[in-house]
Amino acid sequence: MIYLGSAQGFSKQHTVQVPVPAPSRLNTADINQDGWLDLIVSCAGHYQRLKDTLDVFYGSPSGFQAENSQKLLAGYSALSTAAADFNRDGNLDLLVTAYSTPTSRVLPAQLFWGNGKPLDLEHPLNLPAESSAGVTQIDLNRDGWVDLVLACHQNDIGHQVNSLIYWNSPKGFDVSRVTRLPGLGPHGMTVPDRGNAYIRKPEESYVSPFYHTKGGRARNIAWSADASPTTELRFQLRWVATEGELQQAVCMGPDGAGSYYLSSGASVTGVPENSHWLQYRATFVPPYGCGTPQLQEVCIGFDSGS
């Protein structure tokens, strides 16, 4: 059941039902990179001896439709999932934990590769585990590759099993590069995936209101913030001549789209004389999933006007 937000809040009359057997946990990400969040629903089918493991409903302007979805019938119950670009090809992949079948708990977690389209459900990478019930995807050793931490619940004998860190690298995940952590039956770990909800990159953006320049033209941008050495603040500007052009304007850095102002006090370039409306976008980058910068103030200087 999805409660749709509105200016009046949430109500039972403003809901959408998505058909999923035995849903257990929910995740969201833009798997196929079309700008719409996709709904990733884990299924606990083993309690009812169902084959259902996972349903992925791809978002669209018309919402979530069964005909625009994928179903994984792998015979095991999946509790947690984690979306990230594990092989650094620019596409989001999906790790699915394997909690139980009707007869066993010693099951591999499965990593399904993305290609900017629906997931490849036919050729997963199997990562040995024991009743994996929780997962966190994060670059623990700061080498630029997203690692996997699996919370393992039990084997077929009892709950005294190891949880696992699978270390990622340019060669991918390897069973010989695993750190084992003793545990007594953990069921979960973190609730949300690390990173931006759409793209899973370690960044979030704040977009300011549009400001009228009152005849001035931006000449520099400065800011004050608390940021540790491992984090970064990036700024871009966009400008238009009339209010009607606001939503079509492209955010720019010193070298155009795709570049950023990285140093407080930087000179602003490329602003045409007839720009009467200005907006900035601040991007907060905590590369390792924590310790985001804290922004206090942004100042934009103009060559005339106010």
Tell me the Rg in angstroms: 23 Å
- H/I helix tally: 0
Biggest sheet features: 4 strands, antiparallel
Strand order of the largest sheet: 3-4-5-6
What's the rounded overall pLDDT mean?
92
Output the helix-strand order: EEEEEEEEEEEEEEEEEEEEE
pLDDT under 50 segments (min length 5)? Answer: none
- The number of distinct β-strands equals 21
| Strand coverage percent | 35-45%
Distance between the termini: 50 Å
Shape: globular
Structural class: mainly beta
How much helicity do the residues have?
A: under 10%
Q: In brief, what are we looking at here?
A:
Helices cover 0% and strands 38% of the residues. The protein is built from no helices and 21 strands.
Give the topology, please.
Layout: E1 2-3, E2 15-16, E3 23-29, E4 38-43, E5 54-57, E6 69-72, E7 81-84, E8 93-96, E9 109-113, E10 120-127, E11 132-138, E12 147-152, E13 160-166, E14 178-184, E15 204-207, E16 211-212, E17 218-226, E18 232-240, E19 266-267, E20 277-285, E21 294-302
Antiparallel strand pairs: 1-2, 3-4, 4-5, 5-6, 7-8, 8-9, 9-10, 11-12, 12-13, 13-14, 15-20, 16-20, 17-19, 17-21, 18-20
Q: What does this entry look like structurally?
A:
This protein has strands spanning 2-3, 15-16, 23-29, 38-43, 54-57, 69-72, 81-84, 93-96, 109-113, 120-127, 132-138, 147-152, 160-166, 178-184, 204-207, 211-212, 218-226, 232-240, 266-267, 277-285, 294-302. It has 306 residues and is mainly beta. A four-stranded antiparallel sheet has the order 3-4-5-6, with no helix packed on it. A four-stranded antiparallel sheet has the order 7-8-9-10, with no helix packed on it. Strand 3 (23-29) and strand 4 (38-43) form a beta hairpin. It is globular, with a radius of gyration of 23 Å. The model has no long low-confidence stretch (mean pLDDT 92).
